[in-house]
Design goal:
The complex is a heterotrimer of chains A (283), B (320) and C (343). Chain A has helices at residues 2-10, 63-70, 93-99, 110-113, 120-131, 136-149, 166-178, 196-213, 224-230, 248-253, 258-282, and strands at residues 15-27, 34-47, 52-56, 78-83, 86-87, 103-106, 184-188, 216-221, 233-238, 241-247. Chain A has 283 residues and is an alpha/beta fold. Chain C has 343 residues and is an alpha+beta fold. Chain C is built from twelve helices and four strands. In chain C, helix 3 packs antiparallel against helix 9. The two termini of chain C are 13 Å apart. The chains are: A alpha/beta (283), B mainly alpha (320), C alpha+beta (343).
Chain lengths: 283, 320, 343
């Protein structure tokens, strides 16, 4: 695995960002007051091809903003993003449209991201329907394939999203994101709000998918306890700036920045509590 | 005060827009008023010439509009071809009559609607409530036209009230008290129709608001304190329900105004309604525009009054 | 669910009413234009089951009417011969929906007697038939005008809510303008500006157009609200990331949310527009003679002696009330159904 990683690191990164800045201006309705929030401060970021990278940091540090810029859901105020050698920030609508299928995103709120009136099959088939890749029958069969792949029974194809549990809904969202065969999949806090065992199941699924399709995964999380154990690379953000990046082993054994240390400390507390509980029960 | 200023400014813009809209539609009319007027034997050539110079009847639309606006300031408000006089003379009189009818009808319908609504809300589900609901539904499905005709039919049969008009022939000779009674007698029929037409919707809204308020915790608390039913309803619940009801006031004025047109025509009440209908038949453009503007002014004033009432009634609106 | 049952029942009754009026040619015994100069202002024909000798007849029957010797417009029955009511009788020809010719009527009389279920007017025309045919025009006007208003409202609401900013601002100002106008006044004004003496067909479409274009404002505002709330949903954003066009999003995600609003508005607007047509025709500014419409049928009542003496001329009002009531019930049922679940 380690040699694998080093070879992969020497290849050009699948996506890289340099000098990203983004400020959000919030204006209160009917008032002249407005306040600006700088979400990204001069952020540089790279993702190695076919790896699992974790983007961590406390709430409000700018992880989601970075993810949205990478997914081209929003445009940064300044800076540039390269995807497979093409600069995203310079593209216009048409060129962007052809690149979009390759970068897909799954968000935290699965219930909101899925239209409650659609059936599961329709949801999964939607991206292809939009891109007009297949006809009706083809869409349905492809949807069933994808459902099987993410671990959902194909018999549930005609159910509505609210009839599924939270974990199943996330699987549904992941299946939808896979429909256009992306090369980069971004998961924005998709695991938060799920119980630990469900999180573990979904992480296993993601690892499977990564192997099968050579996917590059970017997981955004504020909790390193689970994800940190399987990720290849980790990037830590703090108040809009990227404070540390690198392979997990290196960063976890030698955290440089104070904030990284705090995050890891939190993980260790959980781990040590767990071990203490185990030891106590064993006695 | 600033709120009032803002509303007045807003209202002025609306009125200007309405007047432009009306004039724009008047341009749809085929043919030329000018030509039609020249053919009309009732209007002397001198009048025609005067109108032409003053109102620019043969000029394009923007010029006509500008001249009309000027006439607003000079006090003529346009010229009626049918009556051969400035529109102002007609409009003021008729507007006053419509205002009288509409104001009294609005007052009466609210005075009736509030007690009925409160009472049926307190007796929810029982036979009084069901009976009132059925009556409401029946009234709602009967258009004003039908109500007016039915009432008139009854009047014609029983001669209980005068069958039309606003004042009796011998009005001038009556004493003050008799004059008042005479006016009221003539007012009764059209006002009753208007009240019957607007009552069902008002009662429904009052009832719905009251039901919502009656379920609030503070009412339960008051009841537990032993506060009497009437006091509970009128001093505790009703003020809390006043907010949505005051907004309704603006709407009810609007509905009443449109409804009054028909009722005035059928019962012969000399208001803006018959004026407009006549002017429509005669293609008396300036009167038509004047009548529409007058009724729009009433609508806007009604809604401003409603908003002001809301400001007084609901302290939350004041502080926001 | 109980609410759904109520909705279905109310809708079924309404559909039945519409069917009766649609098949006016079948249900009505006479042609609306055929006159009986011998019977001006005849009262509704009495239907008997028992004759003057006391015999009970199986089939209902009527007597022939004739003028009272010394009066012009009072009638008495001639008890010589009984004329039974035929069902599925042959009568004057007509065309179903304007295409299919037929001459079978629901009921009729064979022989010289007439059956005027709702009396006649000054020309001796059967009011019952005229009410049914008039219903065709009045209902059609209401339905078409509603379609126009809802279409305009949907268009403006969607564009305004979806694209926002200055389009939205200007559209809402326009909506405010239309909402502040007292609609009947404005309706009359617009109607008056348009040519007064036009052919009935032109008059009909003119009427429909004018009524429809006055009432688009409220639906537009309601639909805009729906569109605003729908367009910020998570799945709409997700669709965009898949490259969905604006049109796709409107069609697939936003439009289904508007169905509820459209349905409720339709149930509210149709009766209002029918009343608008009736009002205009009543005042002489809508459909005119000889085309029957509930409005110009009721206009007869504007004459004093008609209102005083001939009570059956109120019959179109009854038809209007029945239709309004039907729509009110449906509107209530839709409202309750929407409150409880979702369409």
């Amino acid at each position: 695995m380690a040699t694998d990683l080093t070879t992969r690191r020497s290849e050009p990164p699948i996506i890289s960002a340099a000098g990203l800045n983004k400020t959000y201006i919030q204006r209160l309705p009917f008032s002249r007051k407005a306040f600006a929030v700088q979400a990204l401060r001069n952020v540089d970021f790279e993702i190695v091809r076919a790896s699992l990278t974790v983007l961590a940091g406390e709430s409000g540090c700018g992880k989601s903003s970075l993810a949205k810029c990478l997914a081209a859901a929003e445009k940064p105020d300044s800076g540039s993003i390269w995807f497979e050698g093409t600069e995203l920030t310079r593209l216009d609508g048409c060129e962007m449209a052809s690149l979009r299928p390759q970068i897909q995103m799954v968000v935290q709120d699965s219930a909101g991201a899925l239209n409650p009136r659609f059936t599961a099959a329709e949801i999964i088939a939607e991206p292809q329907e939009i891109q007009r890749r297949e006809d009706r029958r083809g869409l349905h069969s492809r949807a069933c394939e994808l459902m099987e792949e993410v671990g959902l029974p194909a018999s549930a194809a005609n159910r509505h999203p609210l009839e599924f549990s939270g974990g199943q809904r996330q699987r549904l969202a992941i299946a939808r994101a896979l429909a256009l065969q992306p090369s980069l999949l971004i998961l924005d806090e998709s695991l938060s709000g799920l119980d630990l065992s469900t999180q573990a199941h979904i992480l296993n699924l993601l690892l499977d998918l990564q192997q099968r399709h050579s996917l590059t995964l970017l997981l955004i999380s504020h909790d390193l306890s689970l994800v940190g154990q399987i990720a290849d690379f980790v990037a830590v953000m703090h108040q809009g700036s990227m404070v540390e990046q690198g392979p997990c082993r290196e960063v976890f054994s030698n955290p440089c920045h104070a904030h990284t240390q705090e995050l890891l400390a939190a993980v260790r507390i959980i781990e040590s509590t767990y071990h203490a509980a185990q030891a106590g029960a064993g006695r | 005060m600033r709120y009032l200023e803002r509303r007045m400014l807003h209202a002025s813009f609306l009125l200007i827009a309405v007047s432009i809209l009306c004039f724009a539609f008047s341009a749809l009319a085929p043919g030329n008023f000018f030509d039609e007027m020249k053919l009309n034997p009732q209007i002397s050539p001198a009048t025609v010439a005067a109108l032409r110079s003053q109102y620019g009847i043969d000029q394009p639309l923007p010029v006509r509009y500008g001249r009309w606006v000027k006439s607003l300031f000079s006090g003529e408000w346009g010229y009626s071809f049918a009556y051969n006089c400035p529109v102002k003379n007609l409009l003021l009189l008729r507007a006053r009559n419509t205002l009288l009818l509409t104001a009294i009808a609005t007052l009466m319908s609210w005075i009736l609607a509030i007690p009925i609504g409160v009472w049926t809300a307190s007796r929810r589900g029982r036979w009084e409530d069901r009976f009132t609901q059925a009556g409401t539904v029946f009234l709602l499905s009967t258009p004003e036209l039908v109500l007016a005709l039915l009432l008139l039919q009854w009047i014609v049969r029983t001669h209980a009230l005068p069958a039309g008009g606003m004042l009796s022939v011998n009005f001038e000779e009556l004493t003050f008290k008799s004059k008042l009674i005479d006016l009221l007698k003539h007012l009764m029929a059209p006002a009753t129709v208007l009240v019957l037409a607007s009552l069902p919707l008002l009662v429904r809204h009052v009832r719905a608001s009251m039901i919502e308020v009656l379920q609030a915790p503070f009412i339960q608390a008051a009841r537990a304190h032993g506060i009497g039913k009437a006091t509970l309803l009128f001093r505790f619940a009703l003020p809390a329900a006043a907010n949505p009801l005051t907004s309704l006031l603006g709407f009810s004025v609007a509905g009443l105004l449109s409804g009054s047109l028909l009722v005035e025509v059928i019962s012969g009440w000399p208001g803006l309604g018959p004026l407009l209908v006549e002017a429509s038949m005669n293609r008396d453009v300036y009167v038509v525009v004047g009548a529409v503007m007058a009724s729009t002014v009433f609508m806007i004033v009604g809604s401003i009054v409603a908003d002001l009432l809301l400001l007084i009634v609901d302290p939350r609106v004041r502080t926001s | 669910m109980k609410n759904k049952q109520k909705l279905v029942a109310a809708a079924a009754i309404l559909v039945l009413l519409h069917l009766i009026i649609f098949f006016a040619g079948f249900v009505a015994p006479y042609n609306p234009a055929s006159q009986n100069r011998d019977f001006p202002f005849a009262p509704p024909t009495r239907i008997h089951f028992v004759d003057t000798h006391g015999h009970l007849h199986f089939r209902p029957f009527v007597y022939q009417y004739t003028n009272r010797p010394d009066s012009f417009s009072e009638y008495v029955e001639v008890h010589e011969r009984e004329y039974p009511i035929q069902f599925l009788a042959q009568g004057a020809g007509y065309k179903i929906a304007g295409f299919v010719p037929s001459s079978i009527h629901l009921f009729g009389i064979e022989g010289e007697a007439q059956i005027f279920l709702a009396g006649t007017d000054s020309f001796g025309r059967d009011q019952f038939s005229r009410i049914l045919y008039g219903g065709q025009l009045s209902l059609a006007a209401g339905l078409l005008a509603t379609a126009i208003s809802l279409f305009l409202g949907l268009l403006v609401g969607c564009v305004s809510g979806f694209y926002g900013r200055w389009i939205d601002e200007s559209a809402m100002r326009l909506v405010e303008l239309f909402l502040v106008l007292p609609w009947l006044y404005f309706l009359l004004a617009v109607r008056s500006f348009l040519p007064l003496h036009i052919s009935p067909v032109q008059a009909f479409f003119l009427l429909v157009g004018v009524i429809g274009t006055i009432g688009w404002a409220r639906p537009a505002r309601l639909i805009r609200g729906v569109v605003l709330s729908a367009k910020s949903r998570g799945y709409v954003l997700a669709s965009r990331w898949f490259g969905a066009s604006d049109f796709y999003i409107l069609r697939r995600h936003v439009l289904p949310h508007t169905y509820g609003v459209l349905l409720t508005q339709a149930a509210l607007l149709v009766p209002q527009y029918i009343v608008a047509e009736v009002t205009l025709s009543f005042l002489g500014l809508g459909l005119g003679e000889p085309a029957p419409s509930w409005g110009n049928l009721l206009a007869n009542l504007q004459e004093y002696n008609v209102m005083a003496s001939y009570w059956w001329m109120f019959a179109p009002a009854l038809a209007l009330v029945i239709v309004s009531f039907g729509y009110l019930k449906v509107a209530n049922a839709i409202h309750e159904h929407l409150q409880s679940g979702s369409i």
